[in-house]
UniProtKB/TrEMBL annotation:
Biological classification of the source: Bacteria, Bacillati, Bacillota, Bacilli, Lactobacillales
InterPro entries: MetI-like, MetI-like_sf
UniProtKB keywords: Cell membrane, Membrane, Transmembrane, Transmembrane helix, Transport
Subcellular location: Cell membrane
Main subcellular localisation: membrane
Domain of life: Bacteria
Xref: PROSITE patterns: ABC_TM1
Gene3D superfamilies: MetI-like (1.10.3720.10)
Organism: Enterococcus canintestini
Transmembrane segments annotated in the record for this chain: 12-32, 61-83, 90-114, 134-158, 198-217, 237-259
GO CC entries: plasma membrane
SUPFAM superfamilies given in the database record: MetI-like
Protein name: Spermidine/putrescine ABC transporter permease
Length: 269
């Protein structure tokens, strides 16, 4: 049985090697070459010594934090409410359905909604309010990014809440705890692993957003993802683009280490 499992795991390891490990190693390798193809640390010196790149990094972290925060504030009550419904699987499917639609299509849909002649301004016009510039603002970028990331936060929280043993909640009530205390002392601590997984699933991709920054933010929102796109597609400075990619990989591991499940004595805490 063990040999059979190893045999079936071979395609997985091949996939992991070709499409995960190899691209990461290639990015790291490319980051040590300048535009002339010379081996150099100049890309890292430029990144660490440039206020522009450091400010871009802070912007990326700040916007990713806001997107994650807004997503979490909306997702936790939604996931908690879903666990109380009779047809929870159906409602969960409706939440997942938007993820099947291409991101570019959703972005263009919001361009129509937030545009000067879009749905929101047409609605405001019914009350005599002049058209507002909603598109190409921080507000529109955060709204669209939060909407797109919602399912990826709701699902892990929902699964964590579903796995809570109901007897623990009943025991809390029997011991005299009210609903708020039960939630604070029992439900929320037991669902923290779902929250951490949701934060990983939202924060890490939000660090490198670039399509939404262009289409919805109108390049007013500048992130590391935007810089990578510019270096690879416009300036052709692949070394600098790879360097920023390495920084994002490091940030990803930092976030995963901070939000991952800690083990103590071989047992998950």
């Amino acid at each position: 049985m063990t040999k059979l499992r190893r045999f079936y795991s071979v395609p997985y390891y091949i996939w992991l090697l070709l499409f995960v490990i190899a691209p990461v190693l290639l990015i790291i390798y490319q980051s040590f070459f300048d535009m002339n193809g010379n081996f150099s640390l100049s890309n890292y010196e430029t990144y660490l010594g440039s206020g522009k790149y450091l400010m871009m990094t802070l912007n990326s972290v700040w916007y990713a934090f806001l997107i994650t925060l807004f997503t979490l504030v909306i997702s936790y009550p939604t996931a908690y409410f879903l666990t109380k419904l009779q047809h929870k699987d159906l409602w969960l499917l409706l939440i997942i359905l938007p993820t099947w639609i291409n991101l570019l299509l959703k972005a263009y849909a919001f361009i129509g909604i937030f545009g000067v002649h879009g749905g929101i301004n047409n609605f405001l016009g019914l009350f005599g309010i002049a058209p507002k510039q909603i598109l190409f603002t921080d507000f529109s970028f955060l709204v669209v990014a939060t909407y797109i990331e919602l399912p990826f936060m709701i699902l892990p929280i929902f699964n964590a809440l579903e796995e809570i043993n109901p007897s623990l909640v009943f025991a809390s009530r029997d011991l005299g705890a009210n609903s708020l205390e039960t939630f604070r002392r029992v439900i929320f601590p037991l669902s923290l692993n779902g929250v951490k997984s949701g934060v990983q699933a939202v924060f890490i991709p939000s660090l490198s957003l670039f399509m939404l920054t262009r289409l919805i933010g109108g390049n007013r929102v500048i992130t590391l993802g935007t810089a990578i796109e510019q270096h690879f597609l416009v300036t052709q400075n692949w070394g600098m683009g790879s360097t920023i990619g390495v920084i994002l990989i490091i940030a990803m591991f930092i976030v995963m280490s901070l939000t991952g499940e800690k083990r103590k004595g071989g047992v998950k805490k």
